[in-house]
Amino acid sequence: MKKIFLIFTILFVSVLSTACINNLAVQELNTKAKEYLDAGELDKAICRYKSSLDLDNTIFETNYNLGVALVSAKEYSEAIDVLKKAISINPSFADTYYSLAVALENEAYEKVNGEQNTKVQEEPTEENIKSEVFKNKELTKEEKEEVSKYFLEAIDNYNKYLSLNASAEDKSDVAAHIETLNGELLKYSVTEPSIKTED
User: Fold this and answer.
1) Within the chain, where are the H helices?
2) Does residue 69 register a pLDDT over 50?
3) Which residue of 8, 35, 106, 124 has the smallest Cβ count within 10 Å?
4) Is the dihedral of CA 144, 72, 155, 117 positive or negative?
């Protein structure tokens, strides 16, 4: 009986020790990643955040910060997956929906323009949507459906951002941007969608 108790105690202590070591490693990786992100060293920041997620992928802040770093690095497809994971962990943080909307919108524009003709800045604006940056290529029906899906998801996430952040300082700007995206959605829809706005 003493032998079983001793084995159980050793196992328990080793599991507890491993958890503590992992937690410290995650904190250290996240701290270093934040420093790299603040210094504009996106590749290093992304690498640290990914290493942190390898140790524990259930931490909201790590998923969110990695998603933001991936958006900044114009890795929209990967950012979408990571930000959706962050939302599944903490669905009440408004800025995650905004970041996800930006990633979805940019992914749509990359599909419209091709990978070689991506835009220069992090967030789409009314000016660069209308500018030469977004020269449209001819899309197949399937590509139009995919682009429409991204625009629709972006609109939904901008609306979720506004509903969770009712007193947002950028509320009118985001609402106006949603209207612009509704116009973009109509351009690429294969069927006539109903225009989405937050009531």
Assistant:
1) 2-38, 42-55, 60-72, 76-89, 94-113, 126-130, 141-164, 171-188
2) yes
3) 8
4) negative
